[in-house]
Amino acid sequence: MQGKRLDRVNQLVKEEISTLLQRELKDPRLGFVSVTEVETARDLRTAKVFVSVLGDEAQWTGSLAALASARGFIRNWLRQHLDLRVTPELDFRPDRSMEHAARIQALLRQVGGEAGR
C-alpha cells in the first residue's frame, strides 16, 4: 500500500476510535483517553493504537485494561464505519510522551528558578 493512502487510513482509524471513545464506550474503568497516533501495517492486518491517559498510574492501568477488553467491539465498529477490505487487529499501547514533556518542562522551570537566585 502506498504511503499517502496508508497515512489516510491511519488518520481515519484514529478519528473513528476517538469518536467511539468519546461517545459510545461506557466502561467505568475508562478515564480521559485520547488517541495520539495510529500505525497500521502495510497489509492492514494490524494497527498499533497509541493512547494517552490523563491521570495517575491507576487510571492508566484501568484505561488500558478497558481498551483491551473492548478491542473486539472497537474492531467491529471500525468494520461497520470504514470502507476497508481488511479491518486491522488492534494493539493498544501507552503513549507517555505528553507526561514526559510535562515532567521536562517542570524540571526546566525548577532549574530556571534556581539559576535566578
Textual characterization of the structure:
The protein has four helices and three strands. The N and C termini lie far apart (57 Å). It is globular. Helix 1 (3-23) packs across helix 3. The relative contact order is 0.16. With 117 residues, it is an alpha+beta fold. Strands 1-2-3 form a three-stranded mixed beta sheet. The chain has one domain (3-115): K homology (KH) domain (GMP Synthetase, Chain A, domain 3), CATH 3.30.300. The chain has helices at 3-23, 57-69, 71-81, 97-115, and strands at residues 32-40, 46-54, 89-94. Strand 1 (32-40) and strand 2 (46-54) form a beta hairpin. The mean pLDDT is 90.
Could you give the topology of this structure?
Layout: H1 3-23, E1 32-40, E2 46-54, H2 57-69, H3 71-81, E3 89-94, H4 97-115
Parallel strand pairs: 2-3
Antiparallel strand pairs: 1-2
Q: What's the CATH architecture?
A: 2-Layer Sandwich
The count of strands amounts to: 3
Q: Output the number of helix runs.
A: 4
Give the helix level as a range of percent. 40-55%
Rg over C-alpha atoms, rounded to the nearest angstrom: 17 Å
Can you tell me the residue ranges where pLDDT is under 50 for at least 5 consecutive residues? none
- The fraction of residues in strands falls at 15-25%
Do you know the CATH topology? Answer: GMP Synthetase, Chain A, domain 3
Under CATH at level 1, the class stands as Alpha Beta
Distance N terminus to C terminus? Answer: 57 Å
C-alpha geometry: globular
Q: Would you identify the CATH H-level superfamily?
A: K homology (KH) domain
